[in-house]
Amino acid sequence: MPRVRGPRTEIYCFRVCVMRLARFGDNRLGLVDGYVLRDITSATERLPNFRWPLPAGDQLIAHLDAMRRAIKSAGDAAARIPVTDVKLLSPVANPPRIFATGRPGLVLRSPTGVFGAGEGDKLGLAGPRAAFEMALAVVIGEKARNVSAKDALDIVAGYCIGLGIGAAEEHGFGQSTEVLTVLGPWLVTADEIPDPRNLGLRIAVDGHLQHEGSTKHLAAGVLQLVAHASRAFTLYPGDVLLSGVPEGAGTLHPGATIRATIDGIGAMDVKVS
């Protein structure tokens, strides 16, 4: 089957639009610079006016190239807000699908179970303990099918940190559609991370380091993961691919705070209720 791709202008965005985009508060859009952000929600007025039936995929992700000038202009005019003063939501507002590496192959998770780093109060644990798994989250930037591994990065919009939180089973993590997914702290566009295959990562619970390693040891390599997913499905803007760590899951209790860090992206703190 031939490869399906969107307009070529979408691809160029990922070569020139180096940005860190956060979603916060009451569905506001922020441009992150270090420890502060600028409210650039006004830039979203440049998005096309869609009518039912709506196009597939997250439309902010799909139109990042067309949004570039509007984002810069809005950022130049906006006041700075400390990142610690805002509630961070998932940087991808409307992910069509969440693909996680499973045993074997890919596991689909519900997009309605996606939260941001500041929404730990919505992650109520069903029992005295739960399992969690850290991942590099790869966000697809355009419609594509049958992408080769060598071309995989061409269709990536950016990256964020991913956490899966679900039931603790006898053999580790419960890979099911009921697993909750935390994405954050923001979306780092692909140009800022030209090669995602060797990024340092760390995860700690209540200040105790649980794992430290590199994305080169991920359960599924980024290039192979994108290629594999595109062979099985037509990918759309905003689809999220989660590449899990090789050590698998850890466990946590209600009230625990997870701190997940990936070099080049940043760190996010998630306190579960």
Task: Describe it.
The protein has 273 residues and is mainly beta. The chain has a single domain, classed as Fumarylacetoacetase-like, C-terminal domain (Fumarylacetoacetate hydrolase, domain 2, Alpha-Beta Complex). Helix content is 14%, strand content 36%. The chain has four helices and 19 strands. It has helices at 8-16, 59-62, 64-77, 222-232, and strands spanning 20-24, 28-33, 36-39, 80-82, 88-89, 98-101, 106-109, 114-115, 130-140, 156-166, 168-169, 172-173, 180-189, 200-205, 208-214, 240-244, 250-252, 257-262, 266-271. The strands form three sheets. Strands 1, 2, 3, 4, 5, 6, 7, 8, 9, 10, 13, 16 and 17 form a 13-stranded mixed β-sheet that branches. The chain has a four-stranded antiparallel β-sheet with strand order 15-14-18-19, with no helix packed on it.
> How is the CATH topology named?
Fumarylacetoacetate hydrolase, domain 2
CATH architecture: Alpha-Beta Complex
Q: Kindly state the mean pLDDT as a whole number? A: 87
Helix content: 10-25%
**Relevant CATH superfamily:** Fumarylacetoacetase-like, C-terminal domain
Task: Produce the secondary structure layout.
Layout: H1 8-16, E1 20-24, E2 28-33, E3 36-39, H2 59-62, H3 64-77, E4 80-82, E5 88-89, E6 98-101, E7 106-109, E8 114-115, E9 130-140, E10 156-166, E11 168-169, E12 172-173, E13 180-189, E14 200-205, E15 208-214, H4 222-232, E16 240-244, E17 250-252, E18 257-262, E19 266-271
Parallel strand pairs: 6-16, 8-13
Antiparallel strand pairs: 1-2, 1-5, 1-13, 2-3, 3-4, 6-7, 9-10, 9-16, 9-17, 10-13, 11-12, 14-15, 14-18, 18-19
